[in-house]
Automatic annotation (TrEMBL):
It is a multi-pass membrane protein. It comes from the Bacteria. The chain crosses the membrane at residues 39-61, 67-88, 109-136, 189-209, 221-239, 259-276, 296-318, 340-362, 389-408, 414-435, 447-466, 486-504, 509-525, 531-549. GO terms for molecular function: amino acid transmembrane transporter activity. One of its GO terms (cellular component) is membrane. It comes from Arachidicoccus ginsenosidivorans. Residues 509-552 form the Cationic amino acid transporter C-terminal domain. InterPro entries: AA/rel_permease1, CAT_C. Pfam families: AA_permease_2, AA_permease_C. This is Amino acid permease. Keywords: Membrane, Transmembrane, Transmembrane helix, Transport. It is found in: Membrane.
């Protein structure tokens, strides 16, 4: 039973299928139109979204101006992962992202699990972004004196939570949306219409074609970069004109512990750069361009995040960001410049729209790759003859994202995006360690080799030394500790094993560090999100054993094609 579960696809087989471009009379290859610039813009489009307009405030409150160090730390962590993605993308230049990479290195069962996790990541990520887009868009309409009914601008679940919370606290509920919404029998009619409509429009754009999506994404990225540049330049001008940098002192008010408390918020701001790896099959030269696009987009986004963090903490004291959901708008309203808030609203709408587009492009290509391998019905893998896009999978993605945006509460789902992403990152980074060595081809990216034999054990030892008090406390009170501390102990064990294996097998340092950094971030995610994640995985495994295991194309492959 174990061998069939972990049967692998060889890189040679994938390359032959990619080059052949035909299967069962259906076109497999998509339209090759993406360049380095397009991939870079697509990466920026995916990364700079809700994070810079919302979670950056929470991170600034925890770490003060020194939160810029956390952006650097997170960027380095994501950089390790991006390099590993780039290695895979240059050697396996087809759609599928971490799903396809895991199929090559770990086998079919793990590939299915990671593909199912990516579907969760992209779907829930877009649900959250669509709801955020709706809020900013509604504020933009209000600024233009256009007022939609409140019960058409919020999800039913969000309105009900606020209503129940007010009742529990003994507060008046007469003015709440849930109270005043129209009724359909026993239920209140409350839907987030703008969120649903933007998902519909983005899905249609993704359906029509990658060229049109590319042009739209590039335009929106250009727009938000210009607007963010204005905010940064204008913000530094105001700081310089005031002649005071008191808000930057102390720079680390809560020390590095305070900075690190914002890990979850800052990591959420970086989610998305991996989505461009799903478009490898639509790149003109994926072996050369995909690595550059990932790394360039990470670099641009990091610089923007650091500059924006310095601006908002320079204009307003970091203590004022507690509970602030829209820090950029809050800052300029605080200094009596509400007109700048209109620019911020436009930036937020453009940023969120571009994120929606990239994720809505990425998810159907995961479905398509899984279908090609026989793990999902063939219809998910069909490419439109007219538009050269995975048509059916794109429409299913639209439904999977659009319907929940009508009624669901985004705060309950944000952490699920992070856990699915980190899970994919861990498998990609560790997967590089088991790839066979090859001779570098022309224009092909190869991960730089740095021998981890001595460096990894030293780094793990240093980490354990600095966290020795926490480790000893967790071990002494193991029976009564929370799940976070138990996960911390497990992380230490995994880190020690990684250090030992690095010494014995002389692993490459970058994927080792990428794996350990992502694992550490995973243990910071709340227990409720882990339970939902495991529930989603259980549903996925049921589907795999009910359909994918029996219909896998590797069953029909010869030993030379599947190992």
């Amino acid at each position: 039973m174990s061998n069939p579960l972990f049967r692998k696809k060889s890189i040679d087989t994938i390359q032959k299928e990619y080059d052949k471009g035909q299967e069962d009379g259906q076109p497999m290859n998509l339209k090759k139109v993406l360049t380095v610039r397009d991939l870079t813009f697509m990466g920026v489009a995916a990364v700079i979204g809700a994070g810079i307009f919302s979670t950056i405030g929470k991170a600034a409150f925890e770490g003060g101006p020194g939160v810029i160090f956390l952006f650097l730390i997170t960027a380095v962590t994501c950089g390790f992962t991006a390099l590993c993605y780039a290695e895979f993308a240059s050697r396996v230049p087809v759609s599928g992202s971490a799903y396809t990479y895991s199929y090559v290195t770990f086998g079919e069962l793990i590939a299915w699990v990671i593909g199912w996790a990516l579907i969760l990541e992209y779907a829930i990520g877009n649900i959250v972004v669509a709801i955020s887009w709706s809020a900013y868009f509604n504020n933009l309409l209000i600024g233009m004196h256009i007022h939609l009914p409140d019960w058409l601008t919020i999800g039913y679940q969000t309105a009900k939570i606020k209503y129940d919370s007010a009742l529990a606290a003994g507060m008046p509920v007469n003015d709440l949306i849930y109270t005043n919404a129209p009724s359909l029998g026993p239920l209140k009619f409350i839907i987030n219409l703008p969120a649903f409509l933007i998902v519909v429009l983005i899905t249609l754009l993704a359906y029509i074609g990658i060229s049109e999506s590319k042009k739209s994404a590039n335009f929106m990225v250009g727009l938000k970069l210009v607007l963010l540049a204005f905010i940064v330049v204008f913000g530094f001008y105001l700081i310089a004109a005031d002649g005071s940098t008191d808000n930057w002192s102390p720079f680390l008010p809560n020390g590095m512990d305070g900075v690190l408390r914002g890990v979850s918020s800052v990591f959420f701001a970086y989610i998305g750069f991996d989505a461009i790896s799903t478009t490898a099959e639509e790149c003109k030269n994926p072996k050369r361009d995909m690595p550059k696009g990932m790394l360039y987009s990470l670099l641009i986004c990091t610089v923007i995040y650091i500059l924006v963090a310095l601006v908002i903490t320079g204009l307003v004291n970091y203590k004022e960001f507690e509970g602030v959901a829209d820090p950029l708008a809050y800052v300029f309203n605080k200094i009596n410049m509400p007109k700048v808030g209109l620019i911020i609203a436009v930036s937020a709408v453009a940023a969120s729209t571009s994120v929606l587009l990239v994720f809505q492009i990425g998810q159907p290509r995961i479905w398509m790759s899984m279908s090609r391998d026989g793990l999902l019905p063939k219809r998910f893998g069909k490419v439109s003859k007219r538009y050269k896009t995975p048509a059916f999978a794109t429409l299913i993605t639209g439904l999977l994202v659009g319907i929940p945006t009508l009624f669901i509460d985004d705060l309950l789902m944000t952490d699920l995006t992070s856990i699915g992403t980190l899970f994919a990152f861990v498998l990609v980074c560790s997967g590089v360690l088991v790839l066979p060595k090859i001779k570098k081809a022309k224009d092909q990216f190869t991960l730089p080799y740095i021998n981890a034999r001595f460096i990894a054990p030293v780094l793990v030892a240093v980490f354990i030394y600095f966290f020795r008090a926490r480790l000893l406390s967790a071990m002494e009170h193991l029976r009564t500790e929370s799940y976070e501390e138990i996960l911390f102990i497990l992380f230490i064990l995994v880190a020690i094993i990684a250090a030992v294996l690095s010494f014995i097998k002389r692993y490459s340092l970058i994927p080792v560090l990428g794996t350990l950094c992502c694992l550490y971030l995973m243990i910071t995610i709340p227990a409720k999100s882990w339970l939902v994640f495991f529930g989603w995985m259980a549903v996925g495994l049921l589907l795999y054993f009910a359909y994918g295991y029996k219909h896998s194309r590797l069953i029909q492959k010869s030993p030379a094609e599947a190992k």
